[in-house]
Write a structure and sequence with these properties.
Blueprint (H helix, E strand, L loop, with lengths): L1 H96 L1
Length: 98
């Protein structure tokens, strides 16, 4: 009978250790679930920010491209005006020599 009592005590000790270990694992699992949700939230925020930055970059690229085209067209107009003015000066010089 004493042997049975000792065995029951050993089983009770092991059972208490298992319950304590189970509680630790439940706590750890809860912590990991919380951390996972936090990381998922951060990931979504970063993906949204990344998409916004890509959109902003694309818009900036388009604006710069259009700005460069406008500058090129303005430069062409200026060159045309200068050539026209030079042609007028040459015409005046030719008229004076005649």
């Amino acid at each position: 009978m004493a042997d049975l009592s000792v065995r029951l005590s050993e089983i009770e000790v092991k059972l208490r250790k298992l319950v304590a270990l189970k509680n630790q694992l439940v706590d750890r699992n809860s912590e990991l679930v919380r951390r996972n949700e936090e990381l998922q939230s951060n990931l979504e925020a970063l993906q949204k920010e990344n998409a916004e930055l890509k959109d902003k970059f694309n818009k900036t690229t388009i604006v710069n491209a259009l700005g460069n085209e406008k500058e090129i067209e303005d430069s062409r107009q200026l060159i045309k005006a200068l050539v026209k003015e030079i042609d007028q000066c040459v015409a005046i010089l030719n008229a004076e020599q005649s």
